[in-house]
Every structure is written in C-alpha cells, then in structure tokens.
Amino acid sequence: MVESGEEGRAPGGLGVRPLASLAALLALATEAGLGFGASTGAIWIPPAMLALWAGVALAARIARRPLPRWVPLLLVLAFARAARIAPPRAPSTSSGAERRAESIVGRFRSSGGSRGRIEGPGTEALAGVLLEFVAPPPPEGSWCALLPGEEPKPWPRGPVPGPARRGGFAAGSVRVHPDELVAPLDPERVGTFAHWREALAERADRLDSPRARGLLRALLLGDRSRLEPELLDLFTRTGTRHLLALSGLHVGLLAAALLVPLTGLVGRLLSRAIRRFAPRATGRSRRFSIRGCVALLRIAALVGYVLLVGAHDPVTRAAAALVLAWSAPLLSDLFGSPRRRAVDPLSIWGAALLLELFVSPRGLSNPSLRLSYLATLGILTGAGPIRAVLRRAREGVFLASRADRGLAAILPHSSAVRFVRVVSGRIARAASLAFAVSLAAVLATLPESHARFGELSPIGVLVTPLAMPILLLLLPVAALGLGLAIPLAGAITSALAGSLLSLLEVADRAPFTPLPLPPRPAWLLWLLTAGLFTLLASRHARPRLARIVRWGFAVVLFPWCPAPANLELFALDVGNGNALCLRAPGIEALVFDAGSRNRRRVFSEALAPLLASWEVVHPTIVLSHGHGDHRSALARLLERYPPRLWAGALPPELENRLPPATARIDLDVGRTQLASRGPVDLFLVRGSDVSGNEGSRSLEVRAFGETILLCGDAEEAGLARELDAGWLRGPLRLLLFPHHGSDTNQLGRLFAELRPREVWISASSPPAVARELDRRGVPWGWTGRDGPLSLVLPGEVRASLRAPAGRVGGPGGPGAVKDGRFPATDSPPRPMGGE
Question: What band does 770 get if pLDDT is binned at 50, 70 and 90?
Fold first, then answer.
C-alpha cells in the first residue's frame, strides 16, 4: 500500500514499489536455491552463495542501480535456506513392489489440485511417487499417515520424458482413497464448516443435470472428484481449466457479485439507523463507523467462505489480498492521515509473496502457486498497456466511434443516439478490459504452462472473458440456492452450468484447441516473456528491445526439428498395451496403436512428448483392433493431432471425434497397400473379419531394403490365415510379437516363414514366449524390462536388447526381397463410413 501521489524512485535502486521488486528478487533467489539444492550436495552451497553475491553486485553495477547492502545479503540467505530444505531428486525409475507394505507418516506437500507427496523421515519408499487423492487432500504442510494400500504404478515411458517425470515424480503414481489416509483433525475439516460443506455437496448431487453436479462441486468447493474425465479434458482443451481450480478468481467473483452488494446494503441500512437513533454523531465518526462495520462484515463473510471450502492455499492468498485491500481505506480514518490511503495492487502482490516466501519457501515449487503469482503479476503490469493498444485499434472500427457519429449527423438530438453511444462504449470498454486481462495472464504464464502442460489453447483468451458473465451469475446463485435450499435456484443453477458447458463445446470446435507446443529452452521463453512485459510497461519506445523480442519469438515459432533422413521406430513402455511411433522420409509421423490396460496417462506422459519433439501436425494412425489396451490414448490424440489418414479399426467413440476430412481406409480380409511417400511402403494385413483379437490388423513397413512387421493380437485363426495366404513373408528385420508375447500355437510357422532377426514385445508381465526366443537364439526386447525400444533404418537398435552373440539372417539373406515390394494387392481397400 502506498499513498496516492507518490512519485520518484525509492532509494536503494528498488524502484517506486520496493515491496514488489524485493519480492521478485527473493522469488528468483529461492527458485535458484531449490533447483540447486535438489541437484547438488550441501558442500557446494557456500561457493554458490559467494557466486550469487558477486553476481548480484555485478548486475547492480552494470544496471547503474546500486542496492542497499542488506539486499544482496537477504538474497544470499534466501538462496541458502531454499537449497538446504530442497527435496532431493527422485530416482528415475520405480523400484517396483512393496512400496505400500507399511504405513508412512510425513508432511503433505501439494503439487496442485488433489495431487502431492508426503515427505519426512521414513518416507523414502514414496520418493518420486505422485499421490492422487480421490477425496480432497490434507492441508498443505500438515502431518498425515498413509496406510498400506494400492501399489504405485509406473508412468508410461517414451524416449522423451513426460511432465510428471520432469516435475520430480519419476517413480510413478498411486491413487489414495479416503480410508487409506489418516489426517489430523483441524478446524477447516471438522465442526460446523465441515457439516455445511457436506450439506452443500449433497445438495449439489441432487441437481437434475449429471454434468452440473460435478461442475458445481468443483466451482464452489474445489472438489473435482465427481467430474467426468471427458468434462475435465474439455476445460483443458479450451484453455479454461483454471476455472475449475478454486482460486482468487472465484473469490473475486463471489466478492464482487455477493459479498460487496450484500454488505453495501447492510451499510446503507446502518447509515439510516445511525441518522435516526444517533443524530448527534459527527459526519467523520459516522462515516468511520459505517465503513468499519461494512469492512468487518466483508472480512467475516470472506473468512467464513475460506473455512467452508477447506482453506486451500490459493483461496487463502486471495482472501488475504482482499482483506488488505478492504482495510487500506480504514487506516487513514483510524490514524487520521491527511491523505486518503489508496490501494496499490503491485505492493499488495509483493507483500503477499514476501509473506509466502518467509513462511514456506518450498511452496514456490508448487505449480499452482507459481501460476497464480505469475498470472496476477501479468495482469497488473500488462493488462493496462494491452488495453491501450486495443483502444487505439478500436477507435477506427468500432460502432461507438463511427456508426453513432453517423447517426448523430442525421439525428443530432436523438436520445437513441446517446443511448447507443453510451451502451456501445461501455460494452467496448468492458470487452477490451476482459480480453486484455485474459491475454496478459496467458502471456505471463506461458513459460510455466509450456513446461507443465506442453500445450496452449489460443481460444481460451476469448472463452475466459465470455465465461465470466456466466460465472458471475452462477457462483452467487449456486451459493445462495444450495446454501439456503431454494428449489428454484437448483433449476437456474443447472441452466447456467449447461450454458457454460455449451460455450466450451462451441469453442472446442475451433482449430488449435489445444495447440501442442514443441520443446523449447525454458530460459529462452522466460527471457522473451520478461522482455515483452518490459516493453508493455515501458513509457518510452525501445526499438532495440522490440526487435530482439520480435525476432526471439520468430525463432521460437520456427520449426527446429529437421525432417528425418532415416526411418525411426519407437515402442513406448505402456505396460500391458501397445503404442508404437514411426517417422521416415515422406511420413511425418505414424502411430500404431496407443493404449494400455494398467497404466494411465499414456498420451500425456509418453506419446505427446515424443510427437511434440517431432513437431508433428497431422500424423497417420493405424489401429489394429478396438480393445482398450490398444486405443485408450487415441481419444486425446485425436483432439490434439487431427490425423492425415486413419487406417484399421475405428470404434464409434473415436469415429465421432475424427475430423470429417480425414481419409479412412480398412479391409475385411486380405492385404492392401496404404498411400505413402518416399522410400517407405506400408501394407495393412488382416486375416479374419471377426471382432476381437483374431480380427486384428497387422502393419508391414518396408524401407531401405528391410521389412518390419507390427502385429496386433491375432494369434490363432487370424494369424494362421495370414500365413496360409502368403500375406506375411520374411525375412524380417524386426517383428512386434503378436498378443504381447503370447505362446501362440502358430509359433513354429511364424519363425519358419518370417525368420525375424529381432523381436519386440510390449507387455508389463514376463512374456510367455521368452524361453522359446532364448532357445532359438533370437534377440528380443521387452518394454517391461528394457523400457522404450527404438530402431533406426539404416542403423542399429538404440535400446538394450537381450541378445545372443549371433543374429539370424540379414539384408540380402535367404528370402530377401530385392525391390522391397510384394506382388499386387490381394484385397482392395475398403473405405470406412463417411467416405
């Protein structure tokens, strides 16, 4: 808080807002300390402290902004404190079973939402394990006990680490059910507020609309356990998932739509009562009494709401900021200040961040906290300049600046013209402000979102302002209706929730919802974002910095991944399932199956990082058959990467998501060549038209004089038909073994006719065919043991395969096909529905 009219620069080089500047510097030092302490030992902390001291002094000298001596000391101490308490990095792989054989006691550390970890002595068994709570998690920093329960499941793995592995949860994840957690009894979770919260949740479950029930639980109480996965992904795809995270946005909307009007009404009634029953009260004391009572009522109601929703950190931070803002005008009245004390948002932001860093510096590793402070800082520093740019652009085209002037020339004294001018001007100002706030928040959080989510939804910049009026009505109506059990409010709430979801469904049809982001250096994105906001906040033109930022973003947007010169094939480690990715000259990317029966997040943790590193736009998808262990990740893949071609099985739930212009091809029985370019030929083979395993398709890839066969789950009649008809021929450079390495009754014929030089098996359990492969001396790789497998043609396997000294066959060996092609197609392709 600063007094109005303050000008000039504060002494010591911290600027006109020393709290905000100091908080930003301490946050950088704390972040550096957390990263340094997690990757190195304590012996290196003193040299790092000296280096930081020298770096701060040098930077201040170069910038010609001398700092007080205590500022570098404070930064060094913050760095050292963060480095000492930083958690060590988790192991890169999971140790397997018996992690949950005994109870584990420690402090809960949130990782955003209903996820987190337990830390403390004796919690090494859960190092690197992400805990996902079915019910609301314990309070941040509270002691809790985790009882024996479900074993942690490793993440799906690919050659490029996923967000969870990059975020320190490399060992896997485990779902924690309410009966497996013993948390302390605290005021936020027991007593009257707990009963009220349960009553609100029960009333939300009685709504007519099933989708509105989970949505209201998330918006009012922060409980996302009842949200359908598809509904949650809808918010993610449209860039509005932050609306589901109980945060300062919800606190601000409830305060603006409910608390402020109600307390204002109470203030007016109180003013009339004072004038009637205390007519001798002076104007000053009367104003102070009314203002103080209104502020106390607002603060009390706000504290009650915070306790009602469980006192989560984002809500508590927003409530603390509002309390400071509401208290600022009272200070001048209380202490008799000659000037009215105004609220400076940046100073409040800095004070809140300083308090956060002092109480819990490790909280800075929480992504939700970083996103919250970054978005707020972006809004405070960038929304105004962006709005000014929009205002200048609007002056030449908007209705308020041209159409109403034309009407005024015809009807100069018409009240309708004045009404149009006023209404259109207010709508334009409100729309430009909402858009500027949304855009500033997105730009400020871009580096963090890139690292955490790997995708961006441009339509979210527009959808968020459009959703605000609905939320402004939905939150107070739902709070009053559910709290007071008003029957009509339930129908209104369901209608408003349906309107919000309809808006998101319309926005989901827009292109690039979402837009996958290719990997880029984090430091480059942070520098460009800082430069962009420096330009926005600067009062003077900085052409050199503008050119640097402009060219920097051009470099970031330019494709970095070159077109492949070889064929690259990867088998992802997805447990009991299949997921293979291929790219080659003429083939941007090909995905053969993508699913798992026993591991979640196949797309986000294994498939999406690889496709993003290749900078794929339109992949080719081949699905062997419609079982869940082969297709569970394809729904999210279709939403983010519209395919160029779909070949093979097409279940109805995936057909509804497929873009109408996508080429589709399948066959009943036989062998057909898929359209391909470059030196690669693709053949789709199917031995039976029955549904299920025996109707699986196989994909044959021919490139550089080598043949690769990727099989589905056909292992009996379907596989026998393919061998009998001569649709499968050897020798093979690589064979993805049918049905996850099963002991098929066609095993002898398979090896005799195909003569594979190497075998891959995608499974989590030891394959049944392993002993026979060892007996025959065939090199083989297994994703459950070796992790992701890879092959380059021409080249050698880049994964550790279990192989004897010798190899069977080779290029130009017995049965090799010189021209790399089979005779004419045995079965014509069958276009699927819609073609």
Answer: very high
Torsion sign across C-alpha atoms 503, 508, 510, 515: positive
Residues 630 and 761 in one domain: yes
Return the amino acid letter for 221. Answer: L
Per residue in 378-420, pLDDT tens?
A: 999 999 999 888 887 766 554 445 555 555 555 555 676 677 7
Burial class (CB in 10 A: 0-12, 13-18, 19+), 655: middle
* Average confidence (pLDDT) over 71-79: 86
* pLDDT at residue number 824: 36
238 to each of 253, 275, 557, 586, how far by Cα in Å?
21, 53, 21, 32
pTM: 0.82
Co-location of 400 and 536 in the same domain? no
The span from the CA of 244 to the CA of 475, in Å, is 12
Tokens for 186, please give them: 């605290």
Count: domains in the chain: 5
Which ranges constitute the DSSP H helices of 64-121? 70-85
| pLDDT tens per residue across span 194-223 | 777 777 888 888 887 888 888 888 888 877
Which DSSP letter does residue 726 get? Answer: T
Residue type, 227: L
Are 571 and 547 in a shared domain? no
Query: 756 and 664: one domain?
Result: yes
**CB neighbour list of residue 526: distance below 8 Å, 6 or more residues apart:** 447
d(CA 305, CA 288): 26
Question: What pLDDT does residue 823 have?
Answer: 36
Domain carrying residue 78: 18-85
